[in-house]
Amino acid sequence: MTKRYIIAVTVPALLLGACVTTRPTSAQVESCRAMESNMGLQTPHDHREMKGQGRNPMNLSHDQCLRILRNAE
User: Fold this and answer.
1) Cβ(68)–Cβ(28) under 8 Å?
2) Tens digit of pLDDT for each residue in 14-61?
3) Rounded to an integer, what distance in angstroms lies between the CA atom of residue 56 and that of residue 48?
4) Which own/partner contact pairs does 36-40 have at CB distance under 8 Å and 24+ positions apart?
5) Residue 23 and residue 54: Cα distance in Å, rounded?
6) Signal peptide position in this chain (predicted)?
7) Cβ neighbours of residue 65 under 8 Å, at least 6 residues apart?
8) Where in the chain are the domains?
9) How far apart are CA 10 and CA 24, in angstroms?
10) What would the DSSP string read from start to end of 3-40?
C-alpha cells in the first residue's frame, strides 16, 4: 500500500517537473509580446472565470503567456 502511494505521488511530480523545464521558442515569445501589446478595450475578452463559471482557453493562454514572458526576460 505504501509503495503504491509513493509511486502515485512521485510520477505526477516528475512529469510536471519536466514540463516546467521546457524553454519557450522565440516564436512563442514574440506571439505573447504581440498579444500583450494588442490587449486593450477593443480586444474581445471572456470573463466567465470572474463570474464563477470556470477556466476557459483565453485564461489558460494568458497564464501561459505570462509564464513565457516572465522566463524570457
Assistant:
1) yes
2) 666 656 567 888 899 999 998 888 776 666 666 776 677 777 777 788
3) 8
4) 36/65, 36/69
5) 28
6) 1-27
7) 31, 32, 35, 36
8) 24-39+53-72
9) 25
10) HHHHHHHHHHHHHHHHHHTPPPPHHHHHHHHHHHHH-S
